Every structure is written in C-alpha cells, then in structure tokens.
Amino acid sequence: MLRSEHLAEQVAAKVGQDLTTGDVGGSIAFTHAPKTDIVDITGRTASAELSRDIVDAYITLYFESLRTQVDESQQPEIDLLNEQLVDLRQAVSVVDLAILARMEPYLNPVPNAQGTYPPQPSINEVAPDLVSEKEVLLNEYNQVLSTKTQLDLSGKLRVTSVPVQRATLPVAPEVESNTLLLAAGGVAGVLLGLIACVLVARLSNKALDQNQIAELLGQQIVGEFPSSRVLAKNRRAALENLPPRVQEFVDFLCVRAEAHSRANESLSVVVVGTERSAGTTTLAAAMANRFAANGSQVTLIDVDPRNPELTRLFAAGSPGIPALLAATTDHGALPKRGRDGLRLDPYSPTTIRGLSVVGIGDKADSTGLRRQNVPDLIATAAAHSHVVVFDGGPLMDAASSVQLAQLCDTLVLAVPMRRQLTRTLATIATQVRGRRGELLPVSMPATRSRSTRGAASASQAPLGLAGEPDIVERPRVEVLPPR
C-alpha cells in the first residue's frame, strides 16, 4: 500500500508545490525492519522541509485510508444489526399492547354486593404466552445489541498501527564517507540492545508486558483499566461516582461478562487479584455500578477476609454474610433490627438505585466465609438479584476465593502491571484451568500497596478464616509431680 502509485498521487496533491507523482515516488524510500512491524520512510529532495512534508503526508494518508477501509468493511453488518434492533423494538411494543389489551378487563374492577373487590390476577396468570414471548424478544434484543457493541469495539481496536515518530529534519548534512561507519554503529547498537533486552527478560522474575502475562495464563488480556486520580483519592467513587472515562471500559467488560450468562438465570461475577492491592475492590465496585446503571438489581458482596474494604466503606455495622446465609425468607421480609436494636438485614443500601452491599460481617462474632458455604452463598444472593458481584481480594489468600473462582459464571482477574511475579501467575493459571465459567484478565495500573490500619489488622487474621473447618482443641491438663 505504501508503494502504490495511487498513494503517491494523493501525497503529491496534499503537499502541492507543483509536485508530480513521479517526483514523490522518486524521492521516497521504504525500509522494513526484519521480523518486526516497523517501516522507516526516508525522503530525499533538494529541500529538507519538503522532504519532511512528503513523509508526513505519507503517514497521515496511510492511516486515514486504513481506518476508512475498516469502517467500510464493517458498515453493512452494523446497518443489518441496527435494522434487527428496530424490528425487535417494534415487536416488543406490539406484545406490550397485546398484554395491555388482555389486562384491560381487570384494570377497573367493580365491587360486589358486599362492597369488596375481586382479587386482581397477575400478568403471568392472564397472558402467560405473551410474557414468555416478550422475554424471548428481550433476550434476542440483548444478544444483537451485544454483538453490535463487540463489532464496534473490534473495529476501533483493529487499526492498531501507530506512527512511532513523525518526520524530522536532519541535524547536519550527510557526509558520504561516514555512511558505513554510522551504519555499522547503528547495527552494533541494535544488536547490543537486543541482547540486553533478552538477558533482562530471562533473568527477571516479573512479567514485563501483557503478552507475557497472556502467555502464562493462556488467555488474552481483555484490556487495561484506565488510571484515575478521582478513584485514587476517593475510595467510594468507584461505586457512587464512577468517572466518565472509566465507564466506557467497564461497560465493555460487563458486556464480556454477560456474554456467557444463561437465560432466565442470575449472573455471578467474582473479581480476584493475582497480588495484594491489585485493585479488586475498585474493579468490583465499578462493575456493580455499571450493572445497576443498566437497570439490573445488583448485590455487591465483600468476601476478602484479609482486607474487607467494601465492608468498612459501605456496610459497617451490618451482620453481613453470616446473616445472609442464615436468612431463609425473602429479602423483603427480613426485619431491619432485632429486639436488642442490632441490625439483622445483611443488605446495606447505597446511593445507586438497585445496588446494595453485603459486608463480610463482624469477625468477632463469626468465623468468616468458608469454602463449603460458597455454593449456598451464591444461590442465596442470586435469588434476590439479577447480578451478584463478589470482591474476593487476592485469589490465593483464601480457599473461599478459589471456590468462588470455580463456581461463578465469570472470573475477572485483576493483574497489576510492573510488579506481577511470574511464579504467582503460573500458580494461578493452574488453579483456574478447567473452570466452567469465562476468564477475563484485566491489566490494572501500577500502584503501591496501600497499608491501612484496617488492612494491617485483617492481614493478621488466622488462615482458618479463609475456609478451613473449625477444629475444637481439647483443654490441656498438666499433672504436677507429688512433692
């Protein structure tokens, strides 16, 4: 494409100065670095400024043409998906009108002779066939919308080439006698740099880039969570006031999480990290925020036994998980307070409509979440929510987190960049291999470990809180020898 006559003609028209296609083609040389995706463009004319303008025109027109080709190739499919969405919306409207017509006789009941009104039937009793038809249409609408979203994102990510450097002017005139010396020095420098990079990569115990992380996990990185000063300064912002620049990435992540959900069943998502302070609390709260913003009833559960930050921020004083596991009635029927005035309701409301938080509970009165309670916890929370999001902290810190990773529909793995140990990734890859749900690794911005008083005290908790059965120790009896 770079060597095409058509592109040279466009460059000549863009630069002007009475240049012809032959002038442009004769002044440009392309050099492809072996075994790389890098192409160097060199311009040679009587004027250094003219050479720079020609090279810049090549770069600009090349990427414009590339993006145009991608957009043109995807536009027919996007138009077809838009038509399907319009047809599905119209079909849902028709079904709604039909439901309203069937319910019309029951909307204005007439009292009987005793002055009482007959019981009003539900929509499921009057029009069960129309309710089922509407659910099928809505599921199909969500699938088409998800396909369109993924197509839009793939089109944006497909054009991954970027100019490494724009055209620059020579700092001094070229001297032909120094050409071989400069070439030899450049080659030697490149070889030494490659050798140094290989040695550093071989000897380092940390993952150097996303490609190495993907190779160790056997799964491509979904993307990089955008860094935000607002989230760093205000720990509640991820749940209550998510910055707009972060919402786009989290929406994409939520769509990926829902892609493998089962129809008419709640979605369970567990967010765990490969290391301590990987950003699981921020990521879990952000996903819960976006699920709730899209109209779902969401429960965010703190299951990090060593640093329950969600509990401190949003569910302080709540009985938390032990009360949720003990509850056998519907959420709406749970009393708010007991006779002693203590809270009994495990659900702590938030400022976001449809989003509630369940804390880990008071460790002084409970033994924490154990691995044998994980299936019951998922089932109980799913009975009251469309989406259940768990903040599990580091995956290898608790047996309950490993159990959640095996049983939940989607596992979101937060991987902190620049400080990720390769041996830890290899261990985690073994743990998540063969799980039934979807694995979504997310690259988190490099941060320093936060040391708070609550986290310090939580980190000293015994490992029994992480999922081992209770062991009752027998009292020790010492027999003193007779005097």
What is the CATH first-level class name of the largest domain?
Answer: Alpha Beta
Mean pLDDT: 79
Number of strands: 10
Radius of gyration, CA atoms, in whole angstroms: 31 Å
What proportion strand? 5-15%
Strand order of the largest sheet: 3-10-9-4-8-5-7-6
Distance between the termini: 102 Å
Q: Helix and strand succession?
A: HHEEHHHHHEHHHEHEHHEEHEHEHEH
- Principal-axis shape equals flat
Structural class by SSE content: alpha/beta
- Largest β sheet strand count, sense and barrel closure: 8 strands, mixed
Short description:
By secondary structure, the chain is an alpha/beta fold.
How would you describe what is shown here?
With 483 residues, the protein is an alpha/beta fold. The chain folds into two domains: 5-108 and 124-158; 210-461, Rossmann fold. 48% of the residues lie in helices and 11% in strands. The protein has 17 helices and ten strands. Strands 3-10-9-4-8-5-7-6 form an eight-stranded mixed sheet, with helices on both faces. α1 (5-15) crosses α3 (48-107). Residues 328-333 and 451-480 have low confidence and may be disordered.
